[in-house]
UniProtKB/TrEMBL annotation:
The lineage of its organism: Bacteria, Bacillati, Bacillota, Clostridia, Eubacteriales. Belongs to the class-II aminoacyl-tRNA synthetase family. It comes from Eubacterium oxidoreducens. Residues 1-350 form the Aminoacyl-transfer RNA synthetases class-II family profile domain. SUPFAM superfamilies: Class II aaRS and biotin synthetases. It comes from the Bacteria. GO terms for biological process: histidyl-tRNA aminoacylation. InterPro entries: aa-tRNA-synth_II, aa-tRNA-synth_II/BPL/LPL, His-tRNA-ligase, HisRS-like_core, HisRS/HisZ. Pfam families: tRNA-synt_His (PF13393). This is Histidine--tRNA ligase. The keyword Cytoplasm does not apply. It catalyses: tRNA(His) + L-histidine + ATP = L-histidyl-tRNA(His) + AMP + diphosphate + H(+). The keyword DNA repair does not apply. GO terms for cellular component: cytoplasm. One of its GO terms (molecular function) is transferase activity.
Length: 416
């Protein structure tokens, strides 16, 4: 079989020019999140398959890259089920690993715990613009904070980061899982049908109100129920404040605390924000993960035409590991989509500290080389970036490549 030079489908090689932008963006994200008190952690790229397939990850559980058992544990010839040959899976997000991590180390962590994670995840998804099978996620999470201070901090930290990267006029769409359920219950849907209803509702942006109505009727739901349900969305469109309208209309189906929670988050963020964005209540926002229990939110970029990140509250996940629930909330930036937008806009990394290349002639004496290295160290201490390399035969080409890498100053050292 011939060797292939191309990466596997849905994954990509990253060229130096893109890598510069990725490094810069990661640094901005880390610095901003650290300024909000988030602490970097790291989890393995693989998890036990049971952790990844416990019906919490929604559609992503169908997209797991599963890992075969190894050595003597793998007996394909006598195995009849997947469980007999698979024991691990590649993580499809950073939230499931985080809750396992927290469950394992809670006694050694502060409360509340503000975690920062950046790492690759894998999903056997259909590749398309801004969507890969291996991609970077940048997550911040707060565990142990039951109040909406968590949501407010997460939204402000994320939007401040996006603002520092130059993004403007974007939206943070916000909703509440309890509102989704209240609207469905009020309209007459059975609780067992909620997930099916929400999957169809999630298509509202693509197929519109009429399309959602048709799909719900085709799925077997009563026309009167569907009309009552979609009438709520029409009422929200006409209302001055959609959250207040729903609270008044749904009555006992929607708790006062749910209304106040959303209004407080929106008000606090609008008051404190520094980036150029709008908070928008979106009753059609669903988010695919089954583990969300309360507030959910999403980044909407007009130039992308889709989500560039999102998150929400997942107060029941830690309890799956420990038997005791811990309030938790997180926000994930769609790193690959942010990089795509920056590259398509012609983004250039802001000028960094002076970069100098020291080109050393071959045969340079050890004594002189020591002096050059000492000089380089002194310059590095002063904040400069110094590259010490041997001089190539094709010095002109070498200098051109160094210039492309940002080395605007080149010093040559000859053995004479």
């Amino acid at each position: 079989m011939a060797l292939s030079k191309k990466p596997v489908n849905g994954m990509k090689d990253i060229m130096p020019e893109e890598m510069k932008i990725r490094d810069y963006v990661q640094n901005v994200i880390k610095e901003t999140y650290r300024s909000y008190g988030f602490t970097p952690i790291e989890t393995p790229c693989m998890e036990n398959i049971a952790n990844l397939s416990n019906k919490q990850g929604g559609e992503n559980e169908k997209l797991i890259f599963k890992v075969l058992k190894r050595g003597e544990k793998l007996n394909v010839a006598e195995s009849t089920t997947e469980e007999e040959v698979v024991d691990y899976g590649m993580r499809y997000d950073l939230t499931v690993p985080l809750t396992r991590y927290y469950s394992n180390h809670a006694n050694d962590l502060p409360s509340p715990f503000k975690a920062l994670q950046m790492g690759n995840v894998w999903r056997a998804d259909r590749p398309q613009r801004g969507r890969y099978r291996q991609f970077m996620q940048c997550d911040i999470d707060i565990l142990g904070e039951p109040g909406n201070l968590a949501e407010i901090e997460l939204i402000l930290a994320t939007t401040t980061t996006l603002g520092r990267l130059g993004f403007k006029k974007f939206e943070i769409r916000i909703n509440e899982r309890r509102i989704l359920k209240a609207m469905a219950a009020y309209s007459g849907f059975e609780e067992d049908d909620y997930d099916k209803v929400f999957i169809i509702l999630d298509k509202m942006d693509k197929i519109g109100l009429e399309g959602v109505a048709n799909e719900l009727v085709e799925a077997g739901y009563a026309k009167e129920t569907v009309e009552k349900y979609l009438g709520l969305f029409e009422g929200i469109e006409k209302a001055e404040n959609g959250i207040v309208y729903l609270a008044d209309t749904l009555g006992d189906y929607m708790e006062e605390e749910t209304k106040n929670n959303l209004l407080e988050i929106i008000s606090a963020v609008d008051t404190a924000k520094t980036a150029d964005f709008e908070m928008v209540f979106d009753p059609t926002l669903v988010r695919g993960m089954s583990y969300y229990t309360g507030t959910i939110f999403e980044i909407a970029m007009p130039e992308f035409g889709g989500s560039c990140g999102g998150g929400g509250r997942y107060d029941k996940m830690v309890g799956n590991f420990t038997g005791k629930d811990v309030p938790a909330c997180g926000f994930s930036i769609g790193f690959e989509r942010i990089i795509l937008l920056l590259m398509e806009s012609g983004f250039k990394v802001p000028k960094q500290p002076k970069k100098t290349a020291y080109l050393i002639e071959k045969g340079y004496s050890p004594e002189k080389l020591t002096q050059v290295i000492a000089k380089a160290q002194k310059a590095r201490e002063a904040g400069e970036q110094i590259l010490v390399v041997r001089m190539n035969k094709n010095k002109k080409f070498q200098k051109e490549k160094l210039a492309q890498e940002g080395y605007d100053n080149i010093e040559e050292f000859f053995n004479r």
